[in-house]
Design goal:
Rossmann fold, Dna Ligase, domain 1, D-amino Acid Aminotransferase, Chain A, domain 1, nine-stranded mixed β-sheet, six-stranded antiparallel β-sheet, globular, binds adenosine monophosphate, binds glycine, Rudment_hybrid_motif, EC 6.3.4.13, purine biosynthesis, Phosphoribosylamine--glycine ligase
C-alpha cells in the first residue's frame, strides 16, 4: 500500500519509521518531510503543504492511507476534504479538531462531560477580562483561545502580569487573531504527563504514558521550547493515576465525542497535570505529541498500520495493542541560541539510522546532512528500564555532532 504522511518534524520521522516496518506498506511519501526522513526505507519527500495540492497528489498517486502529523491541517479540515474525495485518512474531522483548535470549545466540552479540569472563565471582551483578574487569587493562567504554535499560554504570578498578558493577547494581538478570545484559568500545581490514545469513536485505547521536557535548560528552567526530550513510560503515572485518568478523563471524553456526534478516528493527546487532588486535564491535542511520539513509537510492539486501519474501520474493540516492556528516552539536539535566534547550515556528522536518529531541522544536500532548524534532531534509546534507556539515548547522541549543538543533560534523570 501507498501511504502519505503530512508534516516535517521529528514526530513525522518517527511515524514514517514505524509505518515503514509494516509489511503492508510499499511506499511512504512525506509532505513536505525533511532531509532525515529520506534515510528510511520506502520513504521519500514530496514538497507540498497546502491541502488542495495534497489531495490532488493523493488522488493522482492512488495513496491508500494518509496520516496527519500537525494540528493546523486537521483544524483546517483536511480530514473532511480527503474523506469527501473517497480517500482514507487518519485523524479527526475539523469539528472534532476544535478540541485543540479552540480552548474555549474544549474547556466547555470538559465541563459539560464532567471531565476533571482547572476552573476557568472565557472572555471575548478585554474590559470583562480585566475586571475578572482583579478578583482572582494568583497565580492564574491566561490562554489564547486559538492555535498559537504552543506559545498561547502565560502563567501570571500577579495581577500586573495578568493585565499585560490580556493586553498582549486581546489588544496588541501578538497571537495574530488566535488570542482575541481568551481563557483565564486556575493554576494547578503538580507533575505533567502526556497520554496519547487512539479512538474509532466507539472504543478508546490509551498508549503507554510519556513525559515531555519543555524548558530549554536542565532542571526545567528557562523559556519553553517545542520539547527538548521525552521519556516513556512516565514514572509518575502509577496504576492509581492511570485508573483516575481513565475514569475521570478518558472515558468521559469518549462519551462527549459520542454525544456531540464528533467524527473522530484518530489520536487524542491528553495533556495532564497530576496533582495531590487527582489527575487534571490541561488540554487536548488532536494529534500525536512531539517529542512524545519519538519516545512512544519505539516501544510499540504492534503494527502501527494495523492499528490505524482498525481505527478507520471501527474495529478497535478487537485490537490487542501491545507494547515492549521497558522504557524509551529521546533527547533533542538543538541549534545554539534556540528557542531564540540561531544559525543554520552546519554539517551534521554521524547522521546514520543505526544511531537511532529522528530528524526535524535537517536538510539533505547531495548526501550531506545540514542543520535547517531550531530543533535539529533527536536520538533515542530503549532499555529494560528508564536508566538504561537514558544511557543508550545519550550514547547515541555522542555519535552525532554539528557546530553549536545544544542538548539537555537531564532528560529522564
Ligand atoms: P497547554 O497548551 O494548555 O497544555 O499549556 C501549556 C503548558 O502550560 C502546560 O504544559 C503547562 O506546563 C502549563 N499550564 C497550562 N495550564 C496550566 C494550569 N492550569 N496550571 C499550571 N500550568 C498550566
Ligand atoms: N509535546 C506537546 C505537544 O506536542 O503539543
Amino acid at each position: 500500500m501507498k501511504v502519505l504522511v503530512v508534516g516535517s518534524g521529528g514526530r513525522e520521522h518517527a511515524i514514517c519509521w514505524k509505518m515503514a516496518q509494516s509489511p503492508e506498506v510499499d511506499k511512504i511519501f512525506c509532505a513536505p518531510g525533511n532531509g532525515g526522513i529520506e534515510i528510511e526505507d520506502k520513504c521519500s519527500n514530496v514538497n507540498i503543504t497546502d491541502i488542495c495540492s495534497l489531495m490532488d497528489f493523493a488522488l493522482r498517486e492512488k495513496v491508500d492511507l494518509t496520516v496527519v502529523g500537525p494540528e493546523n491541517p486537521l483544524v483546517e479540515g483536511i480530514v473532511d476534504k480527503f474523506r469527501g474525495s473517497g480517500l482514507d485518512i487518519f485523524g479527526p474531522s475539523s469539528k472534532a479538531a476544535m478540541l485543540e483548535g479552540s480552548k474555549i470549545y474544549s474547556k466547555n466540552f470538559m465541563k459539560k462531560y464532567g471531565i476533571r479540569t482547572a476552573e476557568y472563565a472565557a472572555f471575548d471582551n478585554i474590559d470583562n477580562a480585566l475586571k475578572y483578574v482583579e478578583t482572582c487569587s494568583y497565580p492564574v493562567v491566561v490562554k489564547a483561545d486559538g492555535l498559537a504554535a504552543g506559545k498561547g499560554v502565560t502563567i501570571c504570578k500577579n495581577h500586573g502580569e495578568a493585565e499585560s498578558a490580556l493586553n498582549d493577547s486581546m489588544i496588541k494581538d501578538v497571537f495574530k487573531g488566535a488570542g482575541k478570545k481568551v481563557i483565564v484559568e486556575e493554576f494547578l500545581q503538580g507533575v505533567e504527563a502526556s497520554i496519547l490514545a487512539v479512538t474509532d469513536g466507539n472504543t478508546i485505547i490509551p498508549f503507554i504514558s510519556s513525559k515531555d521536557h519543555k524548558q530549554i535548560y536542565d532542571g526545567g528552567i528557562g523559556p519553553n521550547t517545542g520539547g527538548m526530550g521525552a521519556i516513556a513510560p512516565n514514572p509518575y503515572c502509577s496504576r492509581e493515576v492511570l485508573q483516575d485518568f481513565k475514569e475521570n478523563i478518558m472515558l468521559p471524553t469518549l462519551m462527549g465525542i459520542q454525544q456531540e456526534i464528533l467524527d473522530y478516528k484518530g489520536i487524542i493527546f491528553f495533556g495532564l497535570m497530576i496533582t495531590k487532588k487527582g489527575v487534571y486535564l490541561l488540554e487536548y491535542n488532536v494529534r500525536m505529541g512531539d517529542p512524545e511520539t519519538q519516545a512512544v513509537l519505539p516501544l510499540m510492539k504492534s503494527d502501527f498500520v494495523d492499528l490505524i486501519q482498525a481505527s478507520l474501520s471501527g474495529k478497535l474493540s478487537d485490537f490487542n495493542l501491545e507494547w515492549e516492556k521497558g522504557a524509551c528516552c529521546c533527547v533533542v539536539a538543538a541549534s545554539k541560541g534556540y528557542p531564540a535566534k540561531y544559525e543554520t547550515g552546519f554539517e551534521i556528522s554521524g547522521f546514520k539510522r543505526e544511531n537511532n536518529i529522528f530528524a526535524a531541522g535537517v536538510k539533505g544536500e547531495d548526501g550531506v546532512f545540514k542543520t535547517s532548524g531550531g530543533r535539529v534532531l533527536s536520538t533515542y534509546g530503549t532499555g529494560g528500564n528508564l536508566k538504561s534507556a537514558v544511557k543508550y539515548a545519550y550514547e547515541n547522541l555522542k555519535k552525532v555532532n554539528f557546530k553549536g549543538m545544544y542538548f539537555r543533560k537531564d532528560i529522564g534523570k
